[in-house]
Amino acid sequence: MWALNIFGFFIVDKLLMNLAMPTGVLLFLLPSLLVRVWKRRQWMLKYVIMGCFLLGIGTLSSTLTIQLVLAWACPVIVSCHYYSPRFTHFTLAGVLLCMLCAVYIGLYYGVWDANMMRSSEVLEGITMRAAFISDAIAAGDNLLLRVFNFYYIPRAAILVVVYLIGITLSKRTHNLLRRQEADNREKQRIGAELHVATQIQASMLPCIFPAFPERKEFDIYAAMNPAREVGGDFYDFFLTDADHLALVMADVSGKGIPAALFMVIAKTLLKNAAQSGLSPRAVLETVNNQLCENNEAEMFVTVWLGIYEISTGRLKVANAGHEFPAIKRANGEFALYKEKSGFVLAGMENARYREYNLELHKGDVLFIYTDGVAEATDAANTLYGTGRMLAALNRASDGTPKELLHAVKDDVDRFVGEAPQFDDITMLALQIKG
């Protein structure tokens, strides 16, 4: 605009334009400096910035009376960004006041508006315009009142409409942001609670290895990788007395917090029943009836339970709908041991379970796991399967229980790739040393 006026595009006194344009530009740039140096009373900063904005538009609008009409809507729209009705009210009042001043100043200093002046003859200079306005008033044409009625009021009405639309949208947006902020706080709270729940769940599972450093007859290792922050799988192992080691592998239906809560109950009941000296079959039957009581959520759990007699190498096992274990005999390979399985726990009251015996000798390895291993899928939705699991175990068959579990987990990860993990992966390996 400045350059166009120099070449005569706008009919504005060049001296006046040379004063108005630098002043307007300075007022527009001043907020950028204020943001950097203003340290005290931050709440006042937005009012000072908006004041500079209004003065800048007012200065230019007084000069370019026709071309900058729409510019007055900008401060109102910008003020809505602060989501403060009070600030938007202040801005609208400032806009209406500054625009009123700019309209009348423009009569004397700005671009000649032939429609407003009712004269196609361009009058330059303040003196000539003042005389023209005075003559019009004396002739019964109150130019000042006519400008107010037909120029200022319509523009002000448009700005009020812009204000009403802007503040309505601002309130809606502000409410949405507040709800989003509340949702984010709630998600953070839930995330923190889930993190604590994960730590609590992890602390409930045996996680210190070697678990029994004083026992040279066997080596044991277990691990759980939940698909979510907290999972429904669990394992357990504990000595019921000096000669008996209980092994538990279980998978609760569902995922997340409900499964974790049911897992805590099931794990506690299983351990209490096993430590009382019951056989694996009796443990499952007792715990099944306990879990069926008040099971309004209709959850259930699959359980593989074995009690290993260390002195004889005899392993008594009962299975409640769980995966078949894999066993490697000394100098042999891993293979599934397919025994008959009973119904899941908490699925039906008074269910009966079978019990069978296994003989474990020096060099034998027992591997138990949840269905998250065999049912892991890749991007093409192909199952990992027990075949790949056995192959991974046999490739690392000479390793320790810890190395076996890591070998299987690494093989599952390679197979799955970038596909998401939908089920918990839990494994336990027991190696007989003598």
In short:
By secondary structure, the protein is of the alpha+beta class. It is 52% helix and 15% strand. Keywords: Hydrolase, Membrane, Transmembrane, Transmembrane helix.
Task: Jot down its keywords.
2 domains, single chain, PPM-type-like_dom_sf, transmembrane, 434 residues, membrane, 13 helices, transmembrane helix, 5-stranded antiparallel beta sheet, Phosphatase 2c, domain 1, Bact_Sigma-Reg, rod-shaped, alpha+beta
Structure in words:
Keywords: Hydrolase, Membrane, Transmembrane, Transmembrane helix. By secondary structure, the protein is of the alpha+beta class. 52% of the residues lie in helices and 15% in strands. It has a 5-stranded antiparallel β-sheet with strand order 1-10-9-6-7. A 5-stranded antiparallel β-sheet has the order 2-3-4-5-8. Helix 4 (73-79) packs antiparallel against helix 5, helix 5 runs antiparallel to helix 8 and helix 9 (256-275) crosses helix 10 (280-292). The radius of gyration is 41 Å and the shape is rod-shaped. The termini are far apart.
Which structural class matches the secondary elements? alpha+beta
Q: Superfamily at the CATH H level of the largest domain? A: PPM-type phosphatase domain
CATH architectural designation of the largest domain? 4-Layer Sandwich
Order of helices and strands: HHHHHHHHEEEHHEEEEEEHHHE
Strand order of the largest sheet: 1-10-9-6-7
Unreliable runs: none
The counted number of beta strands is 10
Examine the coordinates and then state which fold CATH places here, giving the name of the CATH topology of the largest domain.
Phosphatase 2c, domain 1
What's the shape? rod-shaped
N-to-C CA distance: 96 Å
| Largest sheet properties | 5 strands, antiparallel
Percentage of residues in DSSP E strands: 5-15%
Q: Give the fraction of residues assigned to helices.
A: 40-55%
CATH class of the largest domain: Alpha Beta
Number of domains: 2
Tally of helical runs = 13
